[in-house]
Write a structure and sequence with these properties.
This protein is mostly helical. 67% of the residues lie in helices and 0% in strands. It contains 3 helices and no strands. Helix 1 (3-15) runs antiparallel to helix 3.
Length: 54
Amino acid sequence: MDKIAIAKSLANDLEKHLCTLETIGALVAAAHLDAAVASLRQTFDIPVDKSEPE
């Protein structure tokens, strides 16, 4: 698996946890996770899937 595929998979997996973090009130952790996902997407030029919430 190449780096871009790994980064895309990781970004997608991490995004799935954002809602859970927000639900339990871990807003600082959610903000950090969101920033990490955005950084992965920027670093590897991964587009945001518009069918998924940002």
